[in-house]
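Lab notebook: predicted structure, single chain.

Context: the supervisor wants predicted structures on file for every construct in the current expression panel, including those that have not yet been purified. This is the next one on the list. No modifications to the sequence; it matches the entry in the shared construct table.
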Amino acid sequence: MSTTEEPWLHTEHGANIGHTEASTWAATVRLQLERVVNGDGSTTILDSYQLVMALRMTLRGVEMTRRHLATDPARRLLDEGMAAFTAAVPGWKDARDVIEHFDEYTQGRGRLQHRPGTKPKDRVPDDVRAQKFRIWFDWRRQGGGRRPVLVVGPYPIDLIDAAEAATRLECDAYEALLTDEGRPWPRGCAYAIRFGGAVG
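Prediction complete. Output recorded below exactly as produced.
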């Protein structure tokens, strides 16, 4: 039996693939948060590290979606979503850099520990700089409750805010796909429908 259906080509569906990856990694962020909040505490720091790394992969999927969108309204929607993500989790990108390049930061030789433009060969080991960028997990009180925070040097990452921001961003990518296909959705509707949150 033959078919006249066109084959599905990966190279022609970059926006969809990007969204699928963003969705997978946003779910990973939520899973890591669940382990942090409801686990026995034995893997809290490990799960926190993985959550921050999964934020980067969520954004990478969304960036791929953005590159393959064909319409300006869809791109604008996703640009707003990416800006909201960055605002919701300040310092996350630098925190991820510190975690990823632990071999430099634990020796005081990390990019953020020196003046901009300092070449790697000119960054000498320095324990004072290293101490300023140490990493630890903390529970912080807020509004009568406790919130899990991964403190990466000067960057405290509220893991609940981070997970919500990743989820919202993945939903923004879905709305951008629909908008690109001529079925525009207001930003925030997919999040409200899927997770019972507020629009916007």
